[in-house]
Amino acid sequence: MKSILKVLSAKGVKLLLCAPTGRAAKRMTEATGFEAKTIHRLLEVDPKAGGFKRDGDNQLDCDLLVVDETSMVDVMLMNALLKAVHNDAALLIVGDIDQLPSVGPGQVLADIIASGAIPVIRLTEVFRQAASSRIIVTAHRINQGHIPDLSKPDEESDFYFVQADDPETAVTRILELVKNRIPRRFGLDPVRDVQVLCPMNRGGVGARSLNIELQAALNPAGERKVERFGWTFAPGDKVMQIENDYYKEVYNGDIGYIEDVDPDASELTAIFDGRSVSYGFGELDTLVPAYAATIHKSQGSEYPAVVIPILTQHYPMLQRNLLTLASLGASCWWSWSVRRRRSR
């Protein structure tokens, strides 16, 4: 994408870049060097009136529109986006149909490709990591429907499998991995560099429960804290925004770190990408601890190290594309999996 955009930019082509989430748009900007916006921001969403200011009557000014992470775009959003593209503009759609489909209705990217109506290029060579990477090999085997190699590597590897025979053991091992083993072995910060990704929120080894355990282990709250909406927030906590907030300019899936909690002013301050954002205590329903997150929420993100608990209690979510995304789409260097033996 970067190469394509550099060539076209040098020829004076007007470019616009967008992605469905703030996290994906930020990553797009970092990777290409060109500014990317969320689709909602590009279309100039009107939070009060609803709808978009950019539409068929007020179209986007560009010669080429590039849409990344298109597998996450649902039917209604793609409909609104295409109405805002004039007939003389070109459209470049980038995405991976083997990752998770959109939360909203439809599977736009898969259907566009299956239609045969537009030219499609499939990228098959891995550049992000070496093709011999165990993460890459594991993701490809899962995607092809094969059981990956879970044996202990003979030498240092980028993929490790750790077995736990029950959920309680799994939680203990996850805490040990995140707090001690991974930081000690690879020199990573347990809060900023290691991310636990769960198939679902619920359950003893779900994101909600693990957030409580990891928060207590990695950043126990002192006196300067606030308890709201079922969570405790304290300075140093890793948090995630779970709704788009166009006034604060923080978006669903953005990760920040709490800088201060001021009980007297009833205000919390968090840092998102180097920018300070203030929340009244009544607004904290849009924040959750982010030591653990669902794999859905992580789509479009990258982390230095990922721990992925995979237990039979997660069985409703254990589909091929979910596991492929967790290991390959998240672009982790080190990945740990935990699973439970079936009793039969």
What does this structure look like?
This protein is of the alpha/beta class and 344 residues long. Helices cover 28% and strands 21% of the residues. It is built from ten helices and 16 strands. The strands form four sheets. The chain has a five-stranded parallel beta sheet with strand order 5-16-15-6-14, with helices on both faces. Strand 3 (64-67), helix 4 and strand 4 (90-93) form a beta-alpha-beta unit. Helix 6 runs antiparallel to helix 10 and helix 7 (167-186) crosses helix 8. Mean pLDDT is 84; it is low at 328-344.
Total helices: the number is: 10
Question: Which strand-content bin applies to the residues?
Answer: 15-25%
Query: Which sequence of SSEs, written as H and E, runs from N to C?
Result: HEHEHEHEHHEHEHEEEEEEEEHEHE
Rounded to the nearest angstrom, the radius of gyration is: 21 Å
Q: Which stretches are low in confidence, meaning pLDDT under 50 for 5 or more residues running?
A: 328-344
Number of strands: 16
**Share in helix:** 25-40%
Tell me, briefly, the overall form. Answer: globular
What average pLDDT do the residues reach?
84
Distance between the termini: 48 Å
The largest sheet is: 5 strands, parallel
Task: Order the strands across the largest sheet as they lie in space.
Answer: 5-16-15-6-14
The structural class is alpha/beta
